[in-house]
Amino acid sequence: MTSSQFPFPTLPRDFVLGAATSAAQIEGHAPGDGKGPSIWDAFCATPGKIKDGSDISVACDHIHRMPQDVERMQWLGLDAYRFSFAWPRVQPLGQGAWNETGLAFYDRLIDTLLAAGIAPHATLHHWDLPQALQDLVGGWQSRETSRYFADYAAEIARRFGDRLVTISTLNEPWCVATLGYEMGQFAPGLKSRKAAMQVSHHLLLGHGLAMSAMRAIGPRSQLGIVLNHTPAVAAEKTPSDLHAARIADGLDVRWYMDPLFRGAYPADAIEHLGDDAPRIESGDMAVIRQPLDFLGINLYTRNWVSTREPKIPAPAPHGFNDMGWEIVPEVLTQHLVRLTRDYMPPPMIITENGMANADVVDADGAVEDTPRVAYLQGHLDAVAKALAMGVDVRGYFYWSLLDNFEWDSGYAKRFGLFRVDYDTQARTPKASAHWYREFIANHKRSR
Ligand code: GBH
């Protein structure tokens, strides 16, 4: 994979280049180590929920292969690695006793990263809620969970706040609420918009309570949140498409950004929701709106909104990924500019960006994934363009380091820089890994 075909974008000297994973998607189980079940274990055990019928009991077996996986990060030359703590590994019931064996794993992971010169960036909740909280109080449908989450956050800040560079409270609350409680596509699999919107509020409340609890500990880590944004674009400039795109934006981008930065849910979205709007107690919005040290943005694609029948298809000059998501690198530039203009956010980090690809393994075992190289190059270039326009973005984490458990798609969709053979657990760097490695080496030379 040559740099002449995919030229290296120029980024600032101190720009952080990394890769990301999450606990439920890579760790797997180590029987007898005290980890409690999460709602994703239960969801995987429900027939028909995971497309290939798989589960997360082994995944990438990272729990047993962590040191070698850190060596792979070192081979890539990563500045930083973003991982998540599995709440039920740390605190099996989501309240009460801490699991020292689970905490010791993350302690080793962080020290191994630091010894390798890789900055650890952690997320507290990447969707694997302790099943006990789901059973006991209905998970995020209850405000109790927001309070338990803050206790857990404080414990992590207390134990690891001297070594973690950043701590993000939540990963993608939109996915948790909407995909988990409205669409039934993710755990716990409910199908109620009313429940989903209440959940979104409790997630934000949990974020706010966790921020306060962690600030009280005074960790050295920067504290923030990670949001996923799928910018909505009207297919035609008709009142109907423009209105639909506006509502989609209100329920995705503004639903989370407005409470965090303006202290209120967007009025048009509240009106659109009617009876499904969440119940808010006095003081909640002040808890949610507190200064963030950084804002993590996950961006994969845009939302092409067409209300005409049949729908106007997305133009997709760069095609679609293996999930069927349109590839539109320029949306990343446009969206970073828009967030800066509308919210004056703290420094931003691209905490996820990547693509699933039906990778081709050659006869000699090499993994050919040119579309991923193009995606990576295109989006790093989009970040460089946003920087040139004055946006404050400090880092980029490719999703994902490894092929892994892609939630309801099981193991069928591959986002990794490394291919994982799930029979042998062998990892093979793809062409994109070689390109990213050369790009990072080139970038470091220019420092
Ligand atoms: C992330 O979610 C997750 O954080 C990560 O765990 C996951 O593995 C990764 O992405 C890949 O899925 O409008 O139909 O074109 C991203 C979730 C992806 C949700 C894009 C909205 C829009 C699809 N978002 N999606 S569409």
Description:
This protein has 447 residues and is of the alpha/beta class. It has a single domain (16-445), classed as TIM Barrel, CATH 3.20.20.80. It is built from 16 helices and 14 strands. The protein has helices at 23-26, 39-44, 62-76, 87-90, 100-115, 131-137, 143-160, 173-182, 193-217, 239-251, 253-262, 267-273, 284-288, 330-343, 370-388, 431-445, and strands at 16-20, 80-84, 119-125, 166-171, 222-228, 232-234, 294-298, 303-305, 348-352, 360-361, 367-368, 393-399, 418-421, 426-429. It has an eight-stranded parallel β-barrel with strand order 1-2-3-4-5-7-9-12, surrounded by five helices. Strands 6-8 form a two-stranded parallel sheet. A hairpin with a 5-residue loop joins strand 10 (360-361) and strand 11 (367-368). Helix 3 (62-76) runs parallel beside helix 5 (100-115), helix 10 crosses helix 11 and helix 14 (330-343) runs parallel beside helix 15 (370-388). It is globular. The mean pLDDT is 98. Ligand GBH binds next to loops.
Summarize the entry for a quick read.
The chain has 447 residues and is α/β, with parallel strands linked by helices. It is built from 16 helices and 14 strands.
